[in-house]
Amino acid sequence: MSEETDSHPVVDTASGLGTQAGARPRLQGRMGVIAVALTVLAFAAPLASVVGVIPLVISSAGAGAPLAFVAATLVLVIFSVGYTTMSRYLPNPGAFYAYITAGLGRTVGMAASLLAVLGYFMIGTGACLFFGIVSNDLVVNTFGGPSSPWWLYSLALVVIVGIFGYFRIDLSAKVLSLAMVLEVVVVLVFDLAVAVRAGPEGRSLTPFAWGSFKSGAVGVALLFAVITFIGFEATAIFREETKDPRRTIPRATYLAVLFMGVFYIVVTWLLVGAYGRAHAKAVATADAPAMFSDAMGRFVGTWARDVISVLVVTSVFAGVLSCQNIIARYGYSLGTDRALPSSLGRVHPRHASPYVSSLVVSVVFFVAVLAFTGSDPAIAYAWLSGAGGFPILLLMFLTSLAVLVFFHRSRGEIDDSTRWHTVIAPALATAALGVALYLSFTNFVLLTGGSRGTAIALQVVIWVVFLAGIVLAIVYRSRRPDIYARIGRQSIT
Q1: Domains of the chain, earliest start first
Q2: R_g of the chain computed on alpha carbons
Q3: Sign of CA dihedral 247, 260, 181, 158
Q4: Residue 310: CB partners within 8 Å, gap ≥ 6?
């Protein structure tokens, strides 16, 4: 069977590991729509995005910044149409890995899986470094404690997150849900305070006018806005650990995108209003990290600034925990397929977790933090986080393209989905994400916050990993066809 015809299985593997896995234990969990949505939302670390990224959008787009999030929300909702529709016909776990394999073939799917792991590792490592910075700042400036090396906090985070990752996903889901609720509540308090008291120019919908948006650096603003959503696409990676994956995954995906969209749109609009349309951009440009905290102090109270300091720490903790779970499940899928060492596919007999893969992730994070102990963590965090977003955007683009190809090949076999779901929405998403990818590539130096040399080195790493995945798949195809046949969580017949 050719790669073109064998790249999209029709066998439902959602209830296990497929026929290739036999009686091996599988991942288990009882997560519902809310739990899955909150788990991936935690990866986005909404409060950390409000503090660290939204001011960057405002500094780029000025008073029209809310429209950047409106546009990003529309693009990602349209992306979700094809993404979730495909999940009905391709119930394989593996997220990007499975979807891209099904549409574009096993060779590209293998490359995509390694790129996903790289991207999430970059983002997760950057978050670990940032955790060390904000934790030490919290202890010293809020609680009046002694200053300690930032990396001690980062290493402690890796150990604690590793412990959670060892157990069943339900435990992590409860912790992540609590962290998310606290983050949302504190931002809602800010929203309510600004909405009631209003800023120096009063309440106005002018930030939603096209004239307010087009006067700024539209491309850069859109790029940062899209990046704040990264993480929602990982809903499919938890497919085996949900109560009803056919319904839970699509609903959780839409819920995550729409919630983040509304959340970011409202808080950006009110943050602009807190300073006034005429001054918001100047404030964001002058001191972006303090923009939200200062506004919180003025409109809510000094105590609220202290609360923000605490919750930023818990927000980053939740983000790293979510990242750990996502990477561990990619490793588990690759181990199950034997594309990487099969030990990664082991499931704990009691906790039904990918414990070996999770432990490996913890070790890599631990070593990565140690490798950066001699560096400026703020600089390293900036370029790791920015660089990590590029592979995820690339994978979203490839996934949209894969959806188009998958349904084109399946035409005549699928008659219960409309052209909007199988052609129009995926095509629009491919075009829009292609623009976002172009903006990410052309603004990569700005995205990483580093030098041109650093940006080039990071791009080289990203493309070398992608090419390594292609080469590995080709080697498997010629020397280990049994492994090649499994790539993408395929069923073996």
Answers
A1: 3-486 (1.20.1740.10)
A2: 22
A3: positive
A4: 138, 142
The pLDDT tens digits for 88-117 are 787 777 778 889 999 999 999 999 999 999
Whole-angstrom distance, CA of residue 320 vs CA of residue 42: 9
Give the predicted TM-score (pTM) of the model.
0.85
| pLDDT tens track for 299-339 | 998 888 888 888 889 888 888 988 898 899 899 989 989 99
pLDDT at 122 over 90: yes
Cβ contacts of 357 within 8 Å, gap of 6 or more: 327, 328, 329, 331, 332, 335, 344, 345, 346
Q: Hey, how many other C-beta atoms are within 10 angstroms of the C-beta on 24?
A: 13
Residue 183 · residue 191 · CB < 8 Å: no
Burial class (CB in 10 A: 0-12, 13-18, 19+), 201: middle
Whether 93 contacts 491, CB under 8 Å: no
pLDDT value at residue 451: 82
Query: How far is 436 from 448, CA to CA, in rounded Å?
Result: 15
Rounded to the nearest 10 degrees, the angle between the axes of helix 355-371 and helix 106-137 is: 60
Task: Identify which of 326, 331, 320 has the alpha carbon closest to the alpha carbon of residue 356.
Answer: 331
Give me the helices (H) in 150-286, please.
150-166, 169-197, 210-214, 218-227, 245-275, 280-286
- Please count the residues of the chain: 493
Q: What are phi and psi of 242, to 5 degrees?
A: -115, 165
Look over the chain and give the mean of its residue pLDDT values, rounded to a whole number.
84
